[in-house]
Amino acid sequence: MTTTSLTGRFDGATLAAVILVTTGTVFGEPALFVGAAVPLGFLLVGWIATPPAVDVRVEREIDPAPAAPGERATVTLRLKNVGDATLTDVRIVDGVPTELPVDAGSPRACLSIRPGETTSLAYAVVPSQGAYEFVSPVVRVRPLSSAAVTTTQPSVTGTTTLVCRRDAGDVPQLQGSLRRVGTQPVDRGGEGIEFHSTREYRPGDDVRRVDWRGFAKTGNLATIQFTETSATETVVLVDGIETGQVARGPGYPTASELTIYAADRVVTRLFAAGNEVGLRTGSITAADIPVPVPTNAADQPWIPPGADEATRRQIDATFDSLVAATHDGERSVWTRSRGLHERLPANADVVLVTPALDESTGELVETLCATDRHVAVITPDITDRETVGKTVTRIKRRLTLARLRAAGATVCDWDTRFPLARAMEAAT
Amino acid sequence: MTSSSRGGEIPATNWQPTLPTTTTAAIVAVVSTLALATLTGDVLVALLGGVTGITLAVTVAAVGTGDYRLTVAAGGLLATVTGLGLLGCFAAAVILQVAWPPTPPFGPLAAAPFLIVGAGLATGFGGVTALRDLSPTRDAGYTALRLLSVGFVPVVAIAVDWWQPLNSVGAELIAARFDQLMQPTQPTSGVAAALPRFVELVALGFVTAAVLYVAVGRLPLVELTRESNRQSVRDVRDSIRQGLRMVMAVAIVTEFCALVVVSSSVIPLDELPADVVGGLLAVSYAPFPRRLFVGGIALGTATLLLVRFVRMLTSRQFRPTYLPLTPLAVGSFLTAVAVVSHEPAAAAVLEQSTSDTAQRMLRELFATVGSFALLTGGILLGLATAACAAVSVSLVHAVGLLGRDSGTQLAGSGVFLAAIAAGISSVPIPAVLVGVAASLYVLDLGEFATTLGQEIGRAGTSRRAEIVHSAGGGVLAVGTVGLGIGTLAVISRLPQLPAPPTAVAVVAASVGTLLLFLATR
Fold first, then answer.
1. Which terminus of chain B is less hemmed in, N or C, by CB atoms within 10 Å?
2. Which helix (H) or strand (E) holds B142?
């Protein structure tokens, strides 16, 4: 719908003209009489002003599509002036869904566009899992005098829906210290990260594996062999969903949602590397999951490690139910230690994914590390220092992470403003 | 959009007028005012007015919006200086026109320096409030309230020091003035005597309508009405306020016309018909309308105070036990300064006075009133002047003459006042035209910045459009100046009209017709 109106921009000029004429009369000054011509000029400009036509073509682009939870999606709105006249004052407000927070830039702009020119405005949003329907932007155009205004909602070409899925984006590589997750050393030289032995150089060997230091000393070419690793069992524990119902700001994904996303990405990576993966969470019961899954005594999902399709489906269904639980705000009592150690395979690595906003996370990790198994912790950080309360939470979380590292766990502290993969690389 | 780039709520400052255009408007206003003041030869009073306007704005910012006690205390002290500065500005405008020391009798004073003082005040105050986006209603009104709290201790001190004279002479003086206002003594004849009373009556009517307008707006009638009846109650309230607004408009126009008749010789008073003169006398001196107006003011003020009191009772911020400690402490400090310094100050003034007459007058004054009361009274006068200035801004906004972009409106009005001053000071007409165009340009920029802030916000992209609008507005202003110069050229080629009143009537009729034509559109 298009509406047009006059703004009454120069109403003040009427008063100015009256005052000038009156004071000119009182003081008998011709300068003031003539001065009234100036506001009258403004009034005449306002009088001849007509609401301008909104000859713009609008296109929206969202990148990436689909987006991952917590990932910044850039929305670009391009406006092209398809008319013959310059649009000096084009105000546009994009129809961002109310539940979608704008993280950078602004979906509002006032633009000046020449005929045939295309200008754009870009802003970033941070979605949670789901689909977000954008409505048409409101465009308001004024002439140079601003004496009239036309408001409309033009149709938009391009993307109108932002889809945010847990399986979107690249699967992060488990690098750095996390590379050990899901592997165990075997007494054989080959690919790996730990030194095993050297052997005589063979044509075709990677030059990066040549022992150049030895070559400098002896003049003989040799190739370095690392301790090879083989895939093993890994159990992913999803923890702290109840305490993670907090977000960086209104509309932002909660720590719980980001925890589930991180767990999903780790499970996908481990499956891709040929590992056997299991899942344990105490935040929901088997009744919440639409497919039958193995449970513990408390009827909570306890999916044993496996590399088959059935295990993958069970884990996916569990993640879906966890996401639904976070959206519904459901809570469940986490009974960590009950049957955990008894059910964990003896040689299984553990990946704990948790917001680490609960002090008991430290106890759990210390218990796990005490059994001499490799424990990695992936934890999304949604804390900041905007308020005193948030600062206290941030400090407590830092202390918890220090405790985890002291216990011997590999900690991946994921600053959720950046991609998960970057945090994986820097994990210590 | 409800969140900021860091995840928090969008700060309220985002929706304030955009800074580049507002800054441009403020700069144009200051430069134009000073340039016009330079042309009229009153740049000193313009600067004085500008600085006082700025200090008044800083006072409002410190006292009205300050959250820290130290800021409020500093603002309270600054208010005293500001009030005295306000009085000093107008005193300077007088002193520049009479020899120093002023020796009666004085000749008629020119209006231009006073207009320039007003221009400096409005531009300085408007420029700062535009950049800080102070709210004239809330911040200036709240400032006045706090300044009244500051004045409490000095008033008590003077009352204690000066109780007897206040009880007798002062009270009698006030009572006599009030009686005169309510029931003026009617002269036997003469329209010249009736007109000042008529002006007084119309001013009383305007104040009554303004007070009732604000009071009706403050009454929580809509909130206390049932949901089903709210719209009708709101309509009735709006109708009443609309009527009161019309009364105010009529009063302003009538007042202006009456002032024109009083101060100019366009309409010879002697030639007015006897019936008109009789009617004017009857209306001007009739006690009933005056009682009605005073009753209306009393009713409106009582309503305002009652509403404020009830709101205070239910408020968490200003609970009944709330004690304005900082303003009272500032008042106590000022009183202590007066206690310590009134005797040395009186001695210094006596020492400085050169003539015997002046010394005798000062001694009599100190003996009658007291040096302490005089010094504390000066402090109180400064506080009261600053509070009155703040309340005036608040009232002007309340009656609708100042809009949401009040800062730039005030700055533009300052330039306009300077242009009028230039117009009556024999400054070249093109300079006057440029001044008028600059004032309208400032108003235009202010309106643009305000709507841009409200619709797009400071976080939105707008730089290029702001530059385009500023340039376009400048071209428009230059064009209107050209139109004025063209009009001037045409007028200079026209044959001389037979008499000034006829010329005035012709021009007024032409302009009025054009304005009516544009208004009906």
1. C
2. helix B141-161
pLDDT digits (tens, 9 = 90+) for B498-521: 555 555 666 666 666 666 655 554
Of residues A31, A102, A144, nearest to B432 (C-beta): A31
Q: Do the chains contact at B468 and A88, CB–CB below 8 Å? A: yes
Note the pLDDT of residue B6: 42
**In 3D, which of A392, A363, A361 has the Cα closest to residue A377?**
A361
Q: Give phi and psi for B494, each to the nearest 5.
A: -75, 150
Total-model pTM:
0.72
**DSSP string for residues in B407-476:** HHHHHHHHHHHHHHHHHTTT--HHHHHHHHHHHHHHHHHHHHHHHHHHHT-TTSB-HHHHHHHHHHHHHH
- Residue B154, preceding peptide bond in cis (omega within 30° of 0): no
Q: What is the number of other CB atoms lying within 10 angstroms of the CB of residue B333? A: 15
Q: Among candidates A114, A96, A113, which has minimal Cα distance to A105?
A: A96
Which of A42, A47, A250 lies at the smallest CB-CB distance from B440? A42
Q: Name the closest residue on chain A to residue B484, using Cα atoms.
A: A37
Which residue type sits at A103? D
Minimal Cα distance from B489: which residue of A? A34
B418 near A CB under 8 A: no
Percentage above 70 pLDDT, chain A: 89
Would you call B476 and A145 a contact, using CB atoms and an 8 Å cutoff?
Answer: yes
Partner residues linked to A279 by β-bridges? A236, A303
The DSSP-derived string for B317-384 is TT-TT---HHHHHHHHHHHHHHHHHHHHHHHHHHHH--SHHHHHHHHHHHHHT-HHHHHHHHHHHHHH
Greatest mean pLDDT among A229-243, A321-335, A368-382, B293-307 = B293-307
Residues of B in contact with A112 (CB under 8 A): 464-465, 468
All residues of chain A having their beta carbon less than 8 Å from the beta carbon of residue B423 are: 20, 23-24, 27, 29, 31-32, 35
Angstrom distance (rounded) from CA B368 to CA B164: 11
Chain A contact present for B476, CB below 8 A: yes
Residue labelled with tokens 């036990």: B321
- pLDDT tens digit sequence for B206-265: 999 999 998 898 888 888 888 888 888 889 998 999 899 888 888 888 887 777 776 666
**Residue B362, exposed/middle/buried by CB under 10 A (0-12, 13-18, 19+)?**
middle
Tally Cβ neighbours within 10 Å of residue B391. 18
Three-class SS state of B251: helix
Reported ipTM: 0.74
Q: Do B436 and A102 touch (CB under 8 A)?
A: no
Omega of the bond leading into B105 within 30 degrees of 0 (cis): yes
DSSP conformation letters of A314-361: HHHHHHHHHHHHHHHT-------STTHHHHS-TT-EEEEE----STHH
B contacts of A250 (beta carbons < 8 Å): 2-3, 7, 9
Q: What angle do CA B40, B44, B50 make, to 5 degrees?
A: 100
| Nearest residue in B to A106, CA atom | B460
Non-local (6+) Cβ contacts of B181 within 8 A are B200, B204, B290, B294
Q: Give dist(CA B393, CA B120) in Å, integer.
A: 15
Q: What is the DSSP letter of A104?
A: E
Q: Chain A contacts of B8, Cβ < 8 Å? A: 249, 386
CB contact under 8 A, A29 and B483: no
Half-sphere exposure in the Cβ direction for B301 (13 Å, CA): 8
In chain B, residues 95-114 whose CB comes closer than 8 Å to chain A: 111
| Amino acid sitting at position A12 | G
Residue type, B413: S
CB contact under 8 Å between A34 and B1, yes or no, is: no
> Distance from A25 to chain B by nearest Cα, in Å?
7
Nearest CA in chain B to A21: B508
Model confidence at B3: pLDDT above 80: no
